[in-house]
# Entry
Amino acid sequence: MALKALDIYKLLPKKNCKECGDPTCLTFAMKLASGKADIDLCPYLDESAKSVLGATTRPPIRLIKLGVGERSFSVGEEFVLYRHDKTFYHPPGILFKVFDTQSSEEITQVTKRVRDEVFTRVGTDLRFNGIAIENSSGTVEAFARAVATVEENADLPLVLISKDLEAFNAALIQVGSYRPLIHSATKENFREMCALAKKHSCPLVVKANGLDNLIGLVKSCGEEGVKKMVMDLCPQSLGDYLSLSTAVRQLAITRAVPDLGYPVFFDATHPNLQDAAIALGIVKYASVIITPPLSEESAKAAHTLRQNIYTDPQKPIQMNPGLYRVGIPGKDAPVLMTVNFSLTFFTLEGYLESSKIPCFLLIVDTEGLSVLTAVAAGKLNETLVRDSLKKFEVEREVSHKKLIIPGYASPLSGRIEEATGWKVLVGPRDAAEIGEYLHEEWNKLKK
# Structure
């Protein structure tokens, strides 16, 4: 069970030296209690206190980083079982699997796809995270060739999968400094795999059947000096994975079994059930998901689900307030006002682009609320619109003072006119009708 801040404070040296970065030991204790600080930041903490605090003050699921550079990603450091309790922080990495029995051309094609493919949704660029290379040939040479092929074409995080220590040695000579995840340590080979992981400072997958065996193996690898681990639960089916991953998460979050406080590895290669496996991994606690290259439709579905699950449910996705241009608007272009809820913005922007009428889009800050909700909550009001018109200097961009507001904001039209001095036009409630509205109503006004 996690210690409370005052319990932790009693074990601290109480020097208030500020060397940990906090003004007092009590402040540091409060951060330790919430998992937002590391005990190693205190230079005066004795070993006995460290042993007591270690398992109770770090995040219940440890943070593990895969790869180096711009495309590296981190997993773990989660604090809740359900995202509505707080939020999930680090989305799972999804990596495409290739085999060393494939040709260099096939491996290159998959690698370049992961390197270059971007799916943009509500203003965020979404990508797959890296490449998993499996030593299916069983030979050292083929594995080394496949790893070299990937490395020649992209700087991506890697997962190296083999049962041959010599194959690992050959691969890590080429990419060991890039911190690939190596799969896997078992009860038969864990000492040798731990030595490899420590030599190259790589995170290590620990693989065992059954939670008791997994706990024992994690402890053994920890005793060998490995701190960066990812756990393969060895599920026999999707149902088995669901049961195991949920049990592991519960035991880790409650700190009932601290040795299970590591990210989870999940191979989502399931014939005829691949999409279901990926979805299950995303929503049920997988941190590293391995899958064959996905179709365009499946890729978009995976990106969308992952983005949704790892968006803070208490904070709507928001656009930065400001004056945006659609096309190349002139001085006589219409000005439309809406809220900074991202889905509203991108839906409206799409319909405006389809209308082929260049215009200005004034985005006001309603803290990410939709139009109807913002009006009901009082977040969208005449003062906000007036201040936004002034702040973003809309009058300098157009030769008129006409403002189109969303249909759901119609109750505010009179008050906005009085506050701003602009003529307010009430647009449609449905964004899909904005093109027709502009072609008919705005063109009439111009005449």
